Amino acid sequence: MSNPQLVVGVAGHIDHGKSALVRALTGTDPDRLPEEQARGMTIDLGFAHIRAADADIWFVDVPGHERFIRNMVAGATGVGFALLVVAADDSIMPQTREHAEALKLLGIESCGIVVSKTDLVDADWAEAVEAEARDLADEIGLRVEFGAHVSSQTGVGISPLLDALANVTRRRAKNADRRRWFRMPIDRAFLAPGRGVVVTGSVLHGAVQAGDELDLWPTGRRVRARDLQTHREQRGDAAGSMRLAINIPGISVEDAPRGCELAVPAYLLTTQRCDAQLEWLRAPGKRLRRRMRLRLHIGTLDTLVEARLADPPDGREIRNAWAQLVPAEPIVAAWGQRFLLRDEAATRTLGGGVIVRPYAQAWTAKAPPDLASLEIIRAGKPRSRLENVIRLGGLRETREASLAAEAGLNAAEDARAQLAELVQRGGLVRLESGAAVMHVHVDTLERIATRLAARLEKWHSSHPRSIGPQLGEWTGWAPKRCPERLRGALTEHVLLDQRFVVTSGCVTLATRAGGVSDADADLLARVVERLDSAAFQPPSIDEVATSFGKQEKRVRELFDYGAASGALTRVSNDIWFSAQRWRDLCHRVSAALRQRGPLSMSEIKNELATSRKYAVPIVERLDALGVTRRVGDARTLGPAAPPSPQ
């Protein structure tokens, strides 16, 4: 079993001794840049590691200067615990507060208060500074797990601080993120001589092995993890909360800048619209607007974003508000991921929150946000979250890994099991077509059936003498957003709804299944009688209309209805038979072929006592149906010929 692991962020105001503290704890100087070492000021992220007793602790030293807050936020990604460092000779300063707020917004629930530079003050003063820091943490909502007074110069308090961190690490190991799919935002990329590009980051969750294939986001490029290393220790695999370096062949440093991510394939997709809950958002000195351009910090990425609030803001600060985030560039996100919002010029932190739906549809007047479902996705149990992700997602092919990331499940296998349970309980319906699978919520199916019923009602109003659209046309009635290869499965399932029936190969409403009006039924009966009386030289549609004194449009629609209902048979546009007369014709021609052998067109014409005008299309129709088969200029008995009467 591996040692308990923890990534600790070291935060606080500039010149409060954060880097000196990391050096004293680990023996490693986190200021790796020459200009940092020369100026004594941390500009970018610094990293260090120590094994304290049985615990592996990685430190991320973040810049304290206000100009480098974006670097601080990038470093806080993946941090599980924080040390809030406050200099004993300075106490609480602006970046102390901003860092503490950022830690809370990024989901870090607890911290340790470290009063540094205690060699410069007496004990009572140090206690007073710690009390102020605890008040700040309490105000912001950070739980303080311990307080420590240290001097990095003399070493006082360093050993007890390490013991406290080891205890925290052991406790945290019991509640580590259970998601099994690997994900690591990249905070640094560099070229290692003889090895190629190496990227580093704090692992959010999951495990990876040397040789594994990974996706590099936001491009989605497939890469391979050739070697793994953590603070100069070569590893064959890595898992859980830790700092990790991964050697990736075949790419350049420019391909993997800070802001990119590595993840196991199939779980992440890019998005440019997320539903989120804002924990809080403020606009110092002015009122909030319903739409605002801000700076989004998510993972190790920072980019411009438009935040669109679900409700008009009231005042200069809001809490627990729903919003859509529309970033200026594609990003990757997952359920439960924390983010920070700063002003467009990136001069101050304005708020932050949590991603609830990584892949969202635009909110409109016709499609307003479903806040009840969003709340279930935010705070519900895994099965309820998954059900509502599918409810709001509508019609999409099922990708279990992606659903796991959307609903905050541990792995694709968990999504598969939960989907099966939801289908069994009746909340979802599984539709299949070949290898394609789609899970659709019953509420979605009900809305689709209702819309199709309304559309079919309009169709019936426009075609009162038609049974309904042919089954072959029905697939085209599926919603446009339905994946093409699943449209047939969807519309076939909708037909199970009691509002629809299939009659003579046509779809109709059950309320219209009784057929045409009494007047049209009477007219159809007269049409059948008229065609029967004409034997094998039936009148055309316009001739029938004229003889009955009816509009040709009405009679033509009635002919179509007669064909669909089985009362009439269409041979060509203008040649129609009653169904019984056509059966008689087929039997008569078949009997003649059995008795006399192959017959010419002329002989079939004479057998039916008709003219060539009728005989040619009749025989062509018989060929098409397989009743007859053409051999040269003659016809023989076809495979679909009716059997000889006994």
Please describe the topology of this protein.
Layout: E1 5-12, H1 18-26, H2 34-39, E2 46-52, E3 55-61, H3 69-76, E4 81-87, H4 94-105, E5 110-116, H5 123-140, E6 143-149, H6 158-173, E7 183-185, E8 188-192, E9 196-202, E10 207-209, E11 213-217, E12 221-224, E13 227-230, E14 233-235, E15 237-239, E16 243-248, E17 261-263, E18 270-271, E19 274-282, E20 291-298, E21 301-309, E22 317-327, E23 331-332, E24 338-343, E25 349-357, H7 371-379, H8 382-393, H9 400-407, H10 412-425, E26 428-433, E27 436-441, H11 442-462, H12 471-474, H13 487-494, E28 500-503, E29 506-509, H14 518-533, H15 541-548, H16 552-565, E30 568-572, E31 575-578, H17 579-596, E32 599-600, H18 601-608, H19 612-625, E33 628-631, E34 634-637
Helix pairs in contact: 7-8, 8-9, 8-10, 9-10, 15-16, 18-19
Description:
This protein is an alpha+beta fold. Helix content is 35%, strand content 28%. It is built from 19 helices and 34 strands. The protein has a 6-stranded mixed beta sheet with strand order 2-3-1-4-5-6, with helices on both faces. The protein has a 6-stranded antiparallel barrel with strand order 19-22-21-20-24-25. It has a 5-stranded antiparallel beta sheet with strand order 8-9-16-13-14, with no helix packed on it. The longest helix has 21 residues. The radius of gyration is 37 Å and the shape is elongated. It starts with a strand and ends in a 9-residue tail after the last strand. 43% of the residues are buried. About 3% of the residues have low confidence.
